[in-house]
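Chapter review: from sequence to fold.
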Amino acid sequence: MHEHDVIVVGAGGAGLRAAIAAQEEGADVAIVSKLHPVRSHTGAAEGGINAALREADSWEDHAYDTMKGSDYLGDAPAIETLAQDSPEEVIQLEHWGMAFSREEDGRVSQRPFGGLSFPRTTYAGAETGHQLLHTMYEQLVKRGIEVYDEWYVLDLAVSDEDDPEDRTCHGVVGYDIQSGNIEGFRARDGVILATGGLGQVFDHTTNAVANTGDGVAMAYRAGVPIEDMEFIQFHPTSLPSTGVLISEGVRGEGGILYNSEGERFMFEYGYASNDGELASRDVVARAELSEVNEGRGIEDEYVHLDMRHLGEERITDRLENILHLAKDFEGVDALEEPMPVKPGQHYAMGGIETDENGETCIGGLYAAGECACASVHGSNRLGGNALPELIVFGARAGHHAAGRDLGEAEITTGKRGEWESGDVETPVAPGEAGISGADAVADGGAAAEGSGLSPDELVARATERTDRRVDALLENDGRNHSEIRSDVQESMTQHVNVFREEDGLKQALRDIRDAREAYQNVGVADQSRTFNTDLLHTIETRNIIDIAEAITLGALARDEFRGAHWRKEYQERDDENWLKHTMLSWNDGSPELWYKPVLLEGDEKRYEPKIRSY
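The token string follows.
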């Protein structure tokens, strides 16, 4: 058994920042990650980091823009924390050597992004995430923080009290991809989940193959509520053939969207008469698909993004990486012709319920980054707000887990009994089909470990259960997971995409139910223990099923149109009935729906909901 003060699961931007912060507090910290840190998906982030750095800007304006972008479903304490802490974190990155793009006077460059009232997005060409990741990895090496890379965390070791708020997380169980060993990791002070996104729930996504929602699924099964899962961001500009992201920086620098008629449709058809291409992402994504659906798309699939007028010098200085992506994946020379783009699943606004310090309702368990929901982004994330979320809340989680007093959190977690219970009419009983016999061995994130055990005994018991689970999967000669995963992905892309209808959502739930039943007889073709990607993907597929169900249940329950959540039957935002967070609790595999209020009270003012227009 490995033992450390703080264990961070995941080595992207949030995980690296959390580990550095915990080490700064004097903690013995280790990262456990299924990827080497510099292969984490943060490296694919292109756009930038929002921070109020100029005298003409302010954190208050950043907070207001973020609340407006969230369509008033973000929580003010989290939003204000992001806006207040981001400048200091950006300056820290600069001091660590991050290669920001700069103005002629030497200042860090900033450019406009969608939904911002000031050009506050700092960037490093079109590879900001890559620079961020490598800058923090250098700090990791410099500080001697231990990294267990290519270790896939399969379960959390959590005590078994009936009320999740009384439970404690004492560590995790990991699978060493190289050796095939399954071993426990004991955390004396805390476990921080920083496992990133869940894009593989869909079949057209900007996310990496590794983004399977592992942290969200594990925390959910261990008893932590998950929040606002229905809010999925579809980025307006992904390449049609692959889903590869084309940065919002292209539009920030002046890139223009055209339909098949050569019309600048964001203005021509009134989708965003003031901000045009720099409207919020949900607005632009819906506009593009509307053009396609109304017959003004190109090849009935995409629109054009044109940056030729910016000139070769400006493009190669600020957007060089985009030229390579367009050429490599679409065969397009973006200096000479426009790029084909269409919306692709990009980001999850919802996730593991936390407060502004990264704490969940389970003692010793934290979450930060895209897998977490504080909630900063509400129903729609602004471009340039993902990377500051990683560094701001990664730092806060790391500091708090290692013992720093950050003050009492204003956001409460896990108070299910205090809030409104929910219900939704579904075509099938969610989760009723159960799980495979192999997974049943360790269901609930290894939570049911027996009472009265010491932390070491809890981790050891969780490890034994997980080992039996893996053995059962390897011994079962059943259906290959890839067929099941593909069925879920196709159904989610068809029915739970930018435009959502009740019948489609109910069909998606039926498809997920079928996937659960099929998964009960899942088998792993590769019987070896070492470098067994078939085994890993089989376990990931179970996570994908759980996450897909949560997203779809939330989407079916929310009878309104807010932010990234569009419902054909409900074309208005309904603040009277739906100014609240959608919460799901595991409840032994049958998701329990409930709601809690949005916190609109900031430090000095209340954010009153207004019509969101651009």
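Two observations follow directly from the output. The longest strand covers residues 182-193. Residues 236-344 form a domain with the Flavocytochrome C3; Chain A, domain 1 fold (CATH 3.90.700.10).
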